[in-house]
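Hey,
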Amino acid sequence: HVQLQACGGGLVQAGGSLRLSCAASGRSKSNYAIGWFRQAPGKEREFVAAVRWSAGATYYADSAKGRFTLSRDNAKNAVYLQMNGLKPEDTAVYFCAVRWGIVTMTRDEWGYWGQGTQVTVSS
């Protein structure tokens, strides 16, 4: 059973930065992906970024490209989402997730979810 622990959200002014962390435990396979999704009030949960763990390949939503950077710590089994140049439209609850296999941007194809962490960007 996979468990995910996410943290790092908070309140920041537009243009500011935050770093989200997600620690994963309980994985029994090596072929998996860890990703971040977000859900704003009244909106669907959407893909933000993900890494295919074995290959180290990263993927970003268009909204994240150039501003967000995903990195990982193999020793800690953790991934980090560095978010720079934050905008009010980035305000959402951010969730980390795990799926076996390759990265997809489809929410329903991810099987394990951590609790969300709130990111609020003020204008």
